[in-house]
Design brief:
The protein contains 19 helices and five strands. The protein is mainly alpha-helical. Helix 5 (111-119) packs antiparallel against helix 6. The longest helix is centred in the last third of the chain and has 27 residues, at 367-393.
């Protein structure tokens, strides 16, 4: 689509993202697509059906990115956040993922699920949303009157020292290209196709999954939603400027951008090739409010957040599933409060959530995204096992005993270190 000015392209992109997020919100509500639920089903019941739905979303997104890039429709080399960036902050990916995984367990769901639950009438999720917003905002923005952020105070001094400056980008194609004496784009395409094929074989070998309409629909729509966002921000909008055709993102970053001369604050924020992620965008909603809802602060992320909530709300009305829910007791409140803080911290530190890193990031084949995904799954599974041991054994199960037994169950410690009988 060709536009005469940037703002026309910008508004079209934001509208398209809202529509895509709206569909995702409705379908996720309808199908109960839930990444934390997927891990819970696997850990507590041995049922991997919803986990396969998550993998299906990843598979669809990978195949879509391979198609976009191999046909020259879009490039994901420079994205927001920089999934393929050459700064390989491996510790932050793993640690951020683990913190997020722990947080989403205490908060009863990831960032996306929080938005879906708000649309369905869950008042607990409004608290989770508010706490994530504040935490994520101050992870990136300084506290009033200072130049210090949560990230700089809690992490930068020690985690940044472990980062590795790579000579290439960190996606599998770029990392393997030098070893195989081939172009990064070619290796990226081959790696993506092989990974997607392997995932598809694993996903479809389950008869239970193949017979589950909701799991298939949820995985397909979430994966297609991630792909649609990559296409919308990377290829949909082109601006005709002074006889030169520039993409929406190229024009926004151009030094000759006409709005910049009049008012630098008028430049729309966070314009770039990007797909769905929900923790930093929840923080962006607070930034929008703090700037009196000025138009430049209405971002891709803000529209995605609003779209998911709206889609979930409409589906809950159509299906008559809208229910007002509140905290059972103070412990329930405290768990959600702590979980929201951890999600806000972990989601920013690890550059994404179960959707942001777990699907959008992995679709770029970025090594950091795989590490973050593993950290999220591990942190969530470990926390669930600890909670289960403490529930069954009550006073007998101290945190250390429950932790050691959980790690034995996960085959990360030898059986001799078990402190509680297996459950």
């Amino acid at each position: 689509m060709i536009f005469e000015d940037f703002m026309g392209a910008h508004e079209t992109v934001l509208g398209a993202i809202f529509a895509t997020a709206f569909i995702m919100g409705a379908v996720v509500n309808k199908t109960n697509f839930c990444t934390m639920g997927a891990i819970s089903d696997w850990v507590n019941m041995g049922d991997k059906s919803r986990f396969r739905a998550w993998l299906l979303a990843i598979c669809v997104a990978i195949l879509g990115v391979v198609f976009l890039e191999s046909n020259g429709l879009a490039s994901l080399d420079k994205t927001l956040p920089p999934y393929r960036g050459s700064n390989f902050a491996w510790l932050e990916f793993i640690l951020g993922g683990m913190i997020f995984g722990i947080g989403m367990t205490y908060g009863s769901g990831c960032g996306n699920k929080t938005l879906v639950r708000i649309g369905g009438g869950n008042l607990k999720s409004i608290l989770v949303f508010a706490v994530i917003a504040v935490t994520a905002y101050f992870m990136l923005n300084p506290f009033p009157g200072t130049d210090k952020t949560l990230y700089s105070e809690l992490f930068y001094g020690w985690t940044s020292k472990t980062s590795i400056a790579l000579s290439t980008q960190q996606d599998l194609g770029s990392l393997l290209a030098g070893q195989l004496d081939a172009g990064a784009a070619t290796i990226r395409m081959i790696a993506g196709l092989l990974l997607a094929a392997g995932l598809l074989v694993y996903i479809l070998k389950s008869a239970d999954f193949r017979s589950s309409f909701d799991n298939i629909l949820g995985g397909l729509i979430v994966g297609l939603g991630v792909l649609a966002a990559w296409y919308i921000t990377g290829a949909l909008a082109v601006v005709s400027a002074d006889g030169e055709m520039l993409s929406w993102t190229e024009y926004a970053s151009a030094e000759s951008w006409d709005m910049l001369e009049d008012d630098s604050d008028a430049r729309p924020k966070d314009v770039g090739v990007q797909s769905f992620t929900f923790i930093n965008p929840i923080g962006q909603t607070l930034r929008l409010a703090l700037h009196s809802f000025d138009e430049p602060f209405v971002t891709f992320g803000v529209m995605a957040v609003i779209g998911v909530i709206a889609g979930s709300f409409v589906w809950s009305l159509i299906s008559r599933s809208f229910r007002i829910e509140w905290f059972v007791d103070f412990k329930d409140f405290l768990n959600h409060f702590i979980g929201a803080i951890l999600m806000g911290i972990g989601g920013v530190l690890g550059l994404g959530c179960t959707i942001g890193q777990g699907i959008s990031g992995i679709s770029t084949l970025a090594l950091g995204s795989f590490l973050a995904f593993g950290g999220i799954v591990f942190g969530c599974a470990m926390t669930m096992k600890i909670q289960y041991y403490k529930l069954v054994y009550e006073e007998e199960a101290s945190f250390i005993k429950a932790l050691l037994s959980a790690l034995v169950d996960m085959k990360l410690l030898p059986g001799g270190m078990r402190k509680l009988d297996a459950i």
